[in-house]
Amino acid sequence: MASTCPNCGRRLRWYDVKAECKECGVSIPNFNWEARLEEDAVKAEQKSLSFHRTMNMFKYSVWGTKLRIVRIIVSFLPALGFILPWFALKSDAESVGIDMLGIFTDGKSLIDLFGAFFGNMDLFFTNMSYEGGSGVLSYSMLAVLFMLLCALFIVIAFFMILFTNKHPKSKLMVVFDVLSIACAVVSGVMFKLGVNAAGAETAVNFGNIPLYNISGGVMWGYFVALALLVAALVLNLLVAKAPAKSHEELEEERLAKKAEKEEKERLKAIEREKAQKEAEKKAAEEQERIVAEAKAKLEARKDKKKK
User: Per-residue pLDDT tens for 116-136?
Assistant: First the structure.
C-alpha cells in the first residue's frame, strides 16, 4: 500500500485496508491507471534497450570479430600449459617433476609436492632456514610459488575479457598477461638458481621426499607454456589496438538484422499463404472435375436407357 493517497496526499495508516481513500474517496489501486501503465511500458522498453545494449557489447567483445574469436581461444590455451612439465629434479633417491599430473616426468609430481608441503609445512620452512633461503629447496619452492602466481594472473586475464565487455578496447588483459609472463620468467630463474645451488648440497628433504646427489633442469613444457602466454599477450594487444564499434553502431546493426529477419518471415508467410491458396484452388478444381465426370457418366447411363 502507498504511504500517501496519490490523489489528495492524505497519509495512509496501517489499518487503512479499504481500496478507497477516506478523505477523497478515490480508488487508490485504480487511480490514474492509464498513466501508470504507460509509465511501466516506458520503463520496460528502457530496460529492454539496456539489456540489448549489454548483450550486444558482450557478444562483440568476446566473439564479435575474427580477431576476437582467435583471442578468446588463444587466451584459454595457456591454462593447458600448466599441466605440462616445467622443471624436473632428479636424484639417486626420489625425483620431483614440476608437472601437475605427473604423466610427463618420472617420480613425484607437483601434486605430491603440494601434499608433502601442506602435510608438514614446518619441516619445509625448517629445512629452508638451514639453507639460509638460498638452497635448492628454497629456490625450488619459490619457482613453484611464481608458477602459481603465473597461473593466477593468466586466469584473471581470461576472465577480464568477459568482465570488461562494456569497454572493448580495455588493456587490463594486457596488464595481467605481462604479470603472468614476468612470473613465469622469474619462476624459471628461481629454478635455475636452485639447480646451480644443488651442487653444494649432497642431500635435501622436500618434506617426506628425500633427494640425494641432485641434478635437474628446465623442461620443454616450460617453453611451450611461455610461448602460449606470449601469444595471449600479442592477441590482446592486437585487439586493444584494433578499431572497435560503439554502442550506437551495434544497436543499428541489431535493429537492421531484426528488420531483415522480420522481412524474411513476412515473405515466408506470404509464400505460405500463396501455397495454401494454390492447394485449395487445385483441390476445388479436382473436386469439380470429379463431379463433372460423375455427372457425365450419369447422363450417359440415362441416354443408354432411353435407347
Answer: 888 888 888 888 888 887 888
